[in-house]
Each structure stands twice: as structure tokens, then as C-alpha cells.
Known about the structure:
Layout: H1 13-48, E1 145-147, E2 153-155, H2 170-182, H3 187-198, H4 204-216, H5 219-230, E3 234-244, E4 247-255, E5 260-265, H6 270-276, E6 285-288, H7 292-295, E7 301-304, H8 306-319, H9 327-348, H10 354-374, H11 381-395, H12 397-400, H13 414-430, H14 436-445
Parallel strand pairs: 3-6, 6-7
Antiparallel strand pairs: 1-2, 3-4, 4-5
Helix pairs in contact: 2-3, 2-4, 3-4, 4-14, 8-9, 9-10, 10-11
Amino acid sequence: MSGDPPAPSVPSYDELAALVVEQAALIAQLRAELEQARARIAELEAQVGKTSRNSAKPPSSDGLAKPPPKSLRKKSGRRPGGQGGHPGSTLRMVDDPDVRLRHEPGPCGGCGASLAGRPVARTERRQVFDLPELRPHVIEHELVERECGCGTRTKATAPDGVDAPVQYGPRVSAAAVYLYSGQFLSKERTATALAELVGIPISAGTVGAMTARAATGLDGFLATVRQCLADAEVVGADETGLRVAGKLHWVHVARTDRYTLIDCHPKRGTAGIDALGVLSGFAGIVIHDAWAPYDTYTDATHQLCVAHVLRELQGIVDAAPAGSWCWATQAADALLALHRLTVDAAATGTTVDPTDLATHTRLLRHAAHIGITQTSPRGTKLMAARHALACRLVDREADYLRFTSNPRIPADNNGSERDIRMIKLRQKVSGCLRTLTGARQFCAIR
């Protein structure tokens, strides 16, 4: 009929073929964009999921959303709390109290008769530990001047340290330095605490002067510690950031179980490490977290921190699909097993069983090779970082496992991290330091 709409035109074969080609190209483009989006999402999720438990981030960066503590160690079978032989810190009675107060009973609780002169059946002791009254203890030195018959006047010499008409004593200086450097109070709060607790008026500037004098007196001590560390067989090294004068500086540490040297420097790399004065020419074993500048000290032998790489592996495990096998899990279990072997051998005074050592080393090596294969595309920064970790486990296996052949080498660098952790706590409590000189003085006293 003349009123019906015209029939739609049927596309030709060539038009359909061109449409299919166009749509195939669009699908390929969308797939590529989807893969990029997925990779970016994975990177962002991994970045957001990083904590001090599964990465190299310091605990201070966890903020208010700090995850519940979760140790990477396995159960030891021991009960929690202090172990046998631990001295504890329970308040105990002393045999010679400063004051004894004798309390007599009233009338008899039975018949009401007076107990005066009656024999003592038993005495119960109770002791109260308290602080003495805190008040300034002022010592006056009178320098007598006498006149001789010849007309010459001679005045007595003041004792050492008594240099002014009015001054603070050594205990006040020690308390100020302790509160400032030991308990991380600011100079103003240190002055306030001394004024309110003891009644000694003191200014923030005086606290700073006392701290500077204390640090200056440590020059010889620091030189001795530096030399002891340079001569040591095993040294741990680490660094952490510190805000000084509104800019990021770096606190470097070198330590053994007996000595610790801490200093602050504007640079994080070899310039700051060299300024500490320990690793230059050091020929012993240095424990570190595999940060590249430490590897430039080729005279030293290296032990890479196992605790640090365990956190890196934990980050991969956390991002893996739930219930799936992950090469990082096998690598971490192998490292933990190797550490247990060395701890048990040291406790029993024996050597590590070579069969067990070979078994767990092989498991670690196989896991790392699987990790290299699974991350080989390295199409994203996240995949490249995981690939580098797997390659590092293979390429530097000897540096990670050096502790298994020498019981004097710790498997981790936790001691260094503990030594500089208080620096971060100081920054959290009282903020950044105002000058590099003040920061170096604070580190010297620490």
C-alpha cells in the first residue's frame, strides 16, 4: 500500500565485513584499556594495603588505622609473658627502710581491756614506697678572703664547676637532659616539668644550653664507639627520615649488640653513610635491608635482612586471591624454617643439620624461580617490583642465608631498627628539630 514505510536497506557483504573489522578493533582497544585499568587498580590496592607489617614502611606511617599486631614468627610453644629466670619488676620489701613507724592496737577486741604492757604476739610489716619531698637543694659556697699582715688579701678558690654567683647544679642539668633527650619532651615542656615538679625556675634556652654541653662532652666517647664499630666483626646499618628545620634529613645508625652510633645528615645515600664514619673501608659483615647504597661498600661481606624480605613477601601474599597457592608463601615458610634451624642449633650448641638446610634452601630457590616465571611480563610497576624481589632471592641467595653458616651473624637487622625507632617517636611526641646541630646533639646523647 502507498502508506507503508519503505523497507530498510540490507547491508552488503562488504559493509558487514567492514563493520566486523571495526568492532574487532574496538574490542581489542577496550580489552587493552581494561587490562591497563586492572593493572592500575592492582597497583593502587597494593599501595593502599601497605603497612609496616607487609612492607618497608615504618610503624609511624600506619597512623590511626594501624592494623592489629601480627608477628611473622611461628609459635614457639612457650607460654606468653616472662620466661623462667626473668628477674621481673615486682615491688619487694627492703630490710632497711628509711623510716619505721610503730602502730599499737587499741583495747582488746574481746573483753575491751587495755593492752598496754602485754606481750607482742606478732608484728605485721607493711612498706610504702614514695618519693621524697621534691624541692630545690641549695648549697652556698662562701669564698673567704683574708688579709695578711703584709697587706695582701687572699681569697679562697671556688670548687670545680662553681663558676658563677648563681647557677644550676649537675643534677638539674642531668634531669633536663634526660627529660629532653630520654623522654622526648620539648625544651619548653622540659622547663615546665622541672618548674612544676621541683620548683626550679628554668628557661627553654637553658635546657638547650645544658643539652649542648652534654653533647659536647661526648666527643671522645663517640670517637671510641666509632672505632669499636669499625673494628667489629658484624655491624648492622640502617637509616630513617627526620624532619629538621622543616626539611627531610636522615638519621643513620651503625650498631652491634654492645655499641650504637647515631648521627643526622641531610643526605640519605653514601654521603650520609660515610659521614657516620663506620662502613668506609669496613672489612667485616654488614647487615642491611638490601638498599643499593650499602652494596657500594665492596670491602664488606653482606647479610641481607630476612625480616625485611619477609615483610615484602607478606605483601605479595596479602594481595593474592584467597585460598590460592602463592610462591611468596613457600619462600617465606622456607626462610622461617631456616631461621628456626639456626636458632635451635645455637640453643643446643650443635651445627645446623645439612640435610634440613639443603631441603629448605631448595624450597626457597624453587619458590623464587616460580616467582620469576609468574612475574616475567613485568607489564606494570607492581609486577616489576615483584619480579625484582624474586630475582633478588635467587641472585643474592648467599647473602640472605649467610646466617645459616655463621652463628655470630644475626638473620635480621631488627637491632638497628629498634635503635632508631626512638627517633621517630621523638618526632611524633615533640615535632621536628629546629637545627641540624641540635639534631646531631640529640642523636649523640641517644
